[in-house]
Structures are given as structure tokens and as C-alpha cells.
């Protein structure tokens, strides 16, 4: 049973920080690239960040560059998304996803396994 579970979302003030976690089970994380995506009501799903299976390659949406950092701890079967200097426009449900395709980058259609999402709300 392959499963990804996001956690760490919540309510934060503008300028604040959150760290999202994506815990995977049912497969070995080492072989998979991981992406973070988000979707706000009435908007299309957006690729946020990506990390290759080795961790040597990462990418970020222009809207989050310099503010978000993706990392992975394969020993814990967990991928993280550190989000700093959060803005109201970051409000969305955040999903992690896994793919055996190490070149998936931010292309949602290339990801095979998805978590249930965690809500991030940035508001005063």
C-alpha cells in the first residue's frame, strides 16, 4: 500500500514560517523524486517545488524562490518543505507527490502517487 501523508499546515501570519512534512510508506523513498504542489479555491493546481531522488537537483516556482526550501531525509522516509516569509497568496492546500521519473520536475502529470493535502492559510 503506497501512501503519502502531508502534515504541518495551519494558520500563520504574513511573514511567518511553516515546515510541511511528507511521510511516505509502502515504498522506498530513495528511488523517487518528490514534488510539492498547491491549489487554491478557483485556481489551477500549481507546481511549487521538486527534488530529485538523489537530492542533487531541486527546482522552485518563481513565486516561491528565495522563500521556500525543499529537502529530504531518506532514512526517515520524509520530505520537507520549509516555507519562510509567507504571503497571503501562498494560501492553498499543499500536496506532495512521488514519481519514479527523476525528470518530472514540476509537471504534475508525471507524478503517480499523491497525498491527501494539508491546508496552509496565511492571514492577519
Describe the SSE topology.
Blueprint (H helix, E strand, L loop, with lengths): L2 E5 L2 E3 L5 E8 L7 E7 L6 E6 L6 E3 L7 E6 L4 E6 L8 E8 L13 E2 L3 E5 L2
Parallel strand pairs: 2-11
Antiparallel strand pairs: 1-3, 3-8, 4-5, 4-9, 5-6, 7-8, 9-10, 9-11
What does this structure look like?
It is built from no helices and eleven strands. With 124 residues, it is mostly beta strands. The strands form two sheets. Strands 2, 4, 5, 6, 9, 10 and 11 form a seven-stranded mixed beta sheet that branches. The chain has a four-stranded antiparallel beta sheet with strand order 1-3-8-7, with no helix packed on it. Strand 4 and strand 5 form a beta hairpin. The radius of gyration is 13 Å and the shape is globular. The N and C termini lie far apart (40 Å). The model has no long low-confidence stretch (mean pLDDT 96).
List SSEs in N-to-C order.
Answer: EEEEEEEEEEE
Individual helix count: 0
> What level of helicity do the residues show?
under 10%
Cα-atom Rg, whole angstroms? 13 Å
Distance between the termini: 40 Å
Number of strands: 11
Strand content: over 45%
Which of globular, elongated, flat, extended, rod-shaped describes the shape?
A: globular
* Regions with little confidence, pLDDT below 50 for 5+ residues: none
Amino acid at each position: 500500500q503506497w501512501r503519502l501523508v502531508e502534515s504541518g499546515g495551519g494558520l500563520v501570519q504574513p511573514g511567518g514560517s511553516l515546515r510541511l512534512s511528507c511521510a511516505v510508506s509502502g515504498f522506498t523513498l530513495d528511488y523517487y523524486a518528490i514534488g510539492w504542489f498547491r491549489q487554491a479555491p478557483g485556481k489551477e493546481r500549481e507546481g511549487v517545488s521538486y527534488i530529485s531522488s538523489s537530492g542533487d537537483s531541486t527546482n522552485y516556482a518563481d513565486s516561491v524562490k528565495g522563500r521556500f526550501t525543499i529537502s529530504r531525509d531518506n532514512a526517515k522516509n520524509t520530505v520537507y518543505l520549509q516555507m519562510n516569509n509567507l504571503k497571503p497568496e501562498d494560501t492553498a492546500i499543499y500536496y506532495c507527490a512521488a514519481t519514479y521519473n527523476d525528470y518530472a520536475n514540476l509537471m504534475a502529470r508525471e507524478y503517480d502517487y499523491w497525498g491527501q493535502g494539508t491546508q496552509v492559510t496565511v492571514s492577519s
